[in-house]
Amino acid sequence: xxxxxxxxxxxxxxxALLSGLxxxxxxxxxxxxxxxxxxxxxxxxxxxxxxxLTERELLARVASxxxxxxxxxxxxxxxxxxxAIYAFKTDFVVAGWVARLKxxxxxxxxxxxxxxxxxxxxxxSYDDKPINPVEVTQPIDVLLxxxxxxxxxxxxxxxxxxxxxxxxAMLTRARIEKRSVASDPVPLLRGNGPVGVIVAAPVIxxxxxxxxxxxxxxYELASMMLTNDDMSLFSVxxxxxxxxxxxxxxxxxxxxxxxxVAADGxxxxxxxxxxxxxRDWQLGYYAKTNSVRRAEQTAIIVAAIGFAITAMVCGLFxxxxxxxxxxxxxxQVRIGFERRLTAVIDELNHRVKNILAVIQSIVTRTLRHGxxxxxxxxxxxxxxxxxxxxxxxxxxxxxQGVKLKGLFEARAxxxxxxxxxxxxxxxxxxxxxxxxxxxxxxxxxxxxxxLSLVGKHPHITANWTVTGEGPDEVFHFRWEEFNTSxxxxxxxxxxxxxxxxxxAPEALGGTxxxxxxxxxxxxxxTAPMETVVDMTERDRTDKISAPxxxxx
Length: 552
Hints:
Layout: H1 2-66, H2 82-87, E1 94-101, H3 106-115, E2 140-147, H4 165-177, E3 181-182, E4 186-187, E5 195-203, E6 213-220, H5 221-226, E7 234-239, E8 246-250, E9 256-260, E10 270-276, E11 279-287, H6 291-308, H7 313-366, H8 373-396, E12 402-403, E13 419-422, E14 427-428, H9 430-445, H10 448-451, E15 460-467, E16 474-482, H11 494-508, E17 511-516, E18 520-528, H12 529-533, H13 535-545
Parallel strand pairs: 13-15
Antiparallel strand pairs: 1-2, 1-6, 3-5, 4-5, 5-6, 7-8, 7-11, 8-9, 10-11, 12-14, 15-16, 16-18, 17-18
Helix pairs in contact: 1-6, 1-7, 7-8, 8-9, 9-11
C-alpha cells in the first residue's frame, strides 16, 4: 500500500507539474499570438489609411498644378478640371474654387455669381450675413465655384471664409506656407452635416508670389479612416485636435461623434500617427477582446484537463504532444501569413510607385514649358484616362495580365469604334499593358485629321501576330492609318515620339519603326513574347495571392 500510494503520489505530483507547465506555456503562447496578430493588423490598417490620405492630398496638388487663373472672379473655374478630378475616382464631398478677392473685385464677383445661375449671388459671411463691399479694405477669400452642383451646394457660392475660424485658419496657413493644408474636423455642407476635413491647395499664378485662390476638397472622416469592421480585432478612434482629451469615433452607420477620454479610463492598445495636409493625425486602436483574460481562461482549461487525466500518463503525454503540435502549426501559419502580407504590401508599394512615376513623367512631359495649354490639357487628361483604364483592367484580373483587345475600349482611346482590330486574344503582362495602353492612345489621338476623309468606315487597322515556337516566339504589331499623309496627319508630340520610338520598345525589349507610304501612315513594333507575356511576373503575383497553408 505504501509503495502503491508512493507511485500514485508520484504520478499525481508528476501530473500536477506537467499540467502546470502546459498551462503556463499555453498562456504565454496565446498571449504572444494575440499581441502579434493585433499589432500586425494595426500596422496594416495604419498603412492603408496613410495610403488613402496620400492619394487625396495628391489629388489636391495635381488639381492646383493644372489650374489656370486668367480671372479669379470667374464662377466656372473648375470647368476644365471636372473630368480630371473624377478620373481619380476619389470620394470627395465637395470640390471648390475659393478666390482671394480684392475690395475692388467684389461687385464684379457678385455679378459673375448671379450670371452663373447661383441663387444667392451676394457676397456674405459664412453665416449668410451680407457684406457691404464698401466696408471691405483687405482681400477676402470667397467661394466662387464648386463641384458637384446640387440643390444643397448651389446656395454656398458667395460665402466668405474669413469669419469661419476653422476654414480661415486653414486658408491662412496654406497662403503663408504655399502648400496643401488640412483643416480641423468640421461639419460639411451645413451645421449638422457629416463631420469631415477640408484640404486646400494654393493656386499661385506664374510669376506671382501670393496665391490667387485655393482649390479645396472636403472628405468625410468616416469614409477616410474611422469606419470599423465588425470582424476586426480592434476599434479605431481619431484624437480630436480641437479638444484636449477628446476622440472622434464612427458608429455602424458611419456617423461620426465626439467622446471624452477620462484620465483613469482605458488607454488605447496602440497609437499610430499619419500625415495629411501638412499636419500629423493620431489614431488610437482599442482591442475588442481582453487577450490577457482569454489567455488565462485557456490556461485554466488546460490545467483542469491535465489534472483530470493525471492518472492516464499516456493520455497526458499524448495531449501535450498534440497541443504543442497544434500551437506550433498556428505559429507557423501566422508567421507565414505575416511574411505573405509583407510581400503583398511591398509589391503593392512597388506597383503604386511605378504608376505614380509614370503619371509624373506624363504630367511633366505634357505640360512642358511653351506647350499649348489647351492641347496639353486634352492630351494629359487622355493619357491619365488611358493609365486609369489599364489599372482598372489589371485590378479586375488581380494583376494577372490584360487581354490585348481590351486595351482598345472606347473609354481608353479616342475613335475606338473606327479602328479595325485583328489578332489573337493574348494576355499581356502588367508592365507591357501599361506601355501598350499609352502607345495606342498616342497613335489614336494624333490621327484626327485623317478621320474626316473616310466618314464612318474603318480607316485604321491594328493587327498583331505571334510567330515562332517556344522561347523563340516573336510578337509583331502593326498600326496603319489609311488615306493620310504627312500633310494631313497631326504631328506627334514630343512625348509621343519618345513613347513611340524609345519607351514602348525598350519596355518590351524590342524595336519599332514608323513611316509613311503612298496612302497610309504605318507604325510597327516587334518584341519577344517572353517580355510581352512575362510569365515570371504572373507567377510571382499568383504566388503572393495563394492561400497560406500550415507546414506539415
